[in-house]
From TrEMBL:
Entries under HAMAP family matching the protein: tRNA_methyltr_YfiC
Record protein name field: tRNA1(Val) (adenine(37)-N6)-methyltransferase
PANTHER family (alphabetical): TRNA1(VAL) (ADENINE(37)-N6)-METHYLTRANSFERASE
Pfam families named among the record's database cross-references: MTS
């Protein structure tokens, strides 16, 4: 697919290794932006998460960082052609990013393959594998760029999510929201939507089923994502 059309913006993805996915749409719709005035999207790819968050809260200052030049080209095109061309894009590794104004919310659909076999596509390997951005490095970057009342939102497959939770705890972060996502009611959860904070509080645990009867989207998935999908 060369592009993806949403209700308020389009996503060109001819150059990006990682295309628009249900994971990204889930995270962009689920992340809590209530207290956010400054948001950072780490590993923006096509710019999907930055665009979704900006649509949800147009007054928010949105920054995006991406290491891959081809993905940056797509993201910049998508930002420029959107209703929010003021989204700021940085082409660099997150480990090299500094800021004078700390972020309220950080969001990321991070690479998560640790030991799996790699393909021939180097850009796709970078986007999918943790070699260039480990869980520990992502959490360290969040702590370096945010303040004590900030939140970190990520989505990961459930096994990797447990590794991420453990790493976050080692670095003094606490899981405060956790949504277990299953594709259908008869299948085990396959994805974890997670929000971490500096302050300990009781974790809000919820669940979400994407598909109801047949191939139709469930009512709860429609309620979460209806502001974005063109035909929903």
């Amino acid at each position: 697919m060369s592009g993806f059309v949403f209700k308020q913006f389009k996503v060109a993805q001819t150059r990006s290794a990682m295309k628009v996915s249900t994971d990204g749409i889930l995270l962009g719709a689920w992340a809590d932006l209530t207290t956010s005035q400054r948001l950072l999207d780490i590993g923006t790819g096509t710019g999907l998460l930055a665009l979704m968050c900006k649509q949800r809260k147009p007054t928010m200052q949105v920054n995006a960082v991406e290491i891959d030049a081809n993905a940056c080209a797509d993201a910049q095109q998508n930002f420029t052609n959107s209703p929010w061309p003021d989204i700021k894009l940085m082409q660099k590794a997150i480990q090299q990013v500094t800021t004078t104004a700390e972020f309220d919310v950080v969001i990321s659909n991070p690479p998560y393959f640790n030991a799996s076999l790699k393909g021939q596509d180097l850009a796709r390997n970078t986007a999918r594998h943790t070699d260039n951005l480990s869980f520990s490095e992502l959490i360290t970057a969040f702590k370096h760029l945010s303040h004590q009342n900030a939140f970190l939102n990520v989505i990961l497959p459930c096994p990797e999510a447990q590794l991420f939770i453990a790493q976050a705890q080692l670095q003094g972060l606490y899981l405060v929201r956790h949504c277990l996502v299953q594709t259908t009611a008869t299948k085990a959860p396959s994805r974890s939507l997670m929000c971490f904070a500096y302050q300990m509080q009781e974790c809000e645990l919820t669940s979400l089923t994407i598909h109801g009867q047949g191939a139709q989207y469930s009512d709860e998935y429609i309620a979460l994502c209806k502001d974005f999908y063109l035909k929903m």
